[in-house]
């Protein structure tokens, strides 16, 4: 049986945001593996650059979303718009806490001036908060992929 590739279906199912996230994670993982194998002599700050790009895009998207929310009040009158806005802010908060963890990890790997337990405090905090966010997401019929991953 020959399977035919339908490009129209492929591009309809394409999710650009997930593509960016997975691309950044793939490049980061490859760079980190090369750094740990001493194949490259880059600093950890350069190795973490794909993660910084991802977080920058998250903050930029939330900034644009907040600007549109406050600039155009007719969006606030729609039924689910407030729930979408709150979900965006919750996602931004999770990403900022993860950014804090990533900055601490990068600094610890570069300088070694922190105790590892202090580096992992943002992850412990986010795992506790993510349980409440998962409950909120189920209640409001929102996706909770990242929150569920952080809660576990």
From TrEMBL:
TM stretches of this protein: 20-40, 52-70, 82-103, 115-138
This protein's record includes keyword Transmembrane helix: yes
Domain of life: Eukaryota
UniProt keyword annotations, A-Z: Membrane, Transmembrane, Transmembrane helix
Annotated source species: Pectinophora gossypiella
Protein name, per record: Transmembrane protein 185A
InterPro entries linked to this entry: TM_Fragile-X-F-assoc
Transmembrane found in the keyword field: yes
